[in-house]
Design goal:
The structure is a single chain. The chain is α/β, with parallel strands linked by helices and 240 residues long. Helices cover 21% and strands 22% of the residues. The chain has five helices and ten strands. Strands 3, 4, 5, 6, 7, 8, 9 and 10 form an eight-stranded mixed sheet that branches. A two-stranded antiparallel ribbon has the order 1-2. It is globular and about 50 Å long. The two termini are 27 Å apart. The relative contact order is 0.14. It binds zinc ion (ZN). The site of zinc ion (ZN) has 3 residues, from helix 3.
Length: 240
């Protein structure tokens, strides 16, 4: 992801600098906006840190043949819910902003991550910096088509956002050899939202990869194996 060299998390230091936008087409309690976020050329993903909170603002531009109201909401909800948690004694939350439905508050030139929802069956993807392509179903090895449940679709959107918004590489095709085992893939027992697209929410190892690397500012994928210190801390040397 190519982004301007901004450090907005230093600019917006406290939660008191945020405002609720009661006129916007968003839930103001869920989506308070930093007062000055849109006075700058903010990148698609902005991380605002205070002593007690880490808030990720994720700008998405959702479209496509499968972009029904329900599926749009599933993307927004899935990313927000599966990446929420606690890290370093701070509350982590994600404000997912669909720029295509919040035009009254988001500038027309606001950079965003394209999300193409396809009403069909295929393999969903997310590339570093975007876009995301989300299919509403998949075809199994026997050639039978299946539609994702709402929960599965939410979960998949959250996983793909890990690629597009946080520039994280899948752990199951990490590609870099583990220096301890020489294996190019990580141990299948490792729990990470970037291993399992369908059941696992963000884990502490995922937060470490994001916040220790400031991965949202990266111009390329962050491979989990590129941080053996983090992996060893969570799983033990030789166990991943
Ligand atoms: Zn993936």
């Amino acid at each position: 992801m190519t982004q301007p060299a901004l450090s907005l998390d230093q600019v917006y230091k406290t939660a008191t600098q945020w405002r609720d936008n009661a006129t916007a087409n968003v839930n103001p309690r869920r989506n308070p906006y930093p007062a000055d976020l849109y006075k700058t050329n903010a990148p698609p993903v902005v991380v605002v840190q205070s002593p007690t909170n880490i808030v990720v603002y994720a700008h998405l531009d959702i479209s496509g043949t499968g972009a029904t109201t329900a599926n749009r909401q599933a993307v927004v909800d899935g990313i927000r819910d599966r990446w929420a948690g606690t890290y370093d004694n701070k509350t982590v939350s994600v404000r997912t902003i669909d720029v295509s439905t919040n035009k009254s508050i988001v500038p027309s030139n606001q950079p965003s991550i394209g999300v193409n929802i396809i009403d069909g069956y295929g393999t969903s993807t997310g590339w570093a910096g975007g876009p995301m392509t989300l299919y509403t179903g998949w075809t199994d090895k026997a050639g039978v088509n299946h539609s994702y449940t709402s929960r599965q679709f939410q979960q998949m959107a959250a996983h793909e956002f890990g690629h597009s918004g946080f520039n994280l590489k899948d752990t199951y095709t990490d590609g870099h050899p583990n220096p301890d085992t020489g294996l190019a893939t990580t141990n299948s027992q490792i729990v990470s939202i970037m291993r399992d697209p369908f059941t696992t929410r963000a884990q502490q190892v995922d937060y470490d990869m994001i916040f220790q690397n400031r991965s949202w500012e990266s111009s390329s994928y962050i491979h989990y194996s590129s941080r053996p210190d983090i992996m060893d801390a969570h799983f033990g040397a030789g166990n991943w």
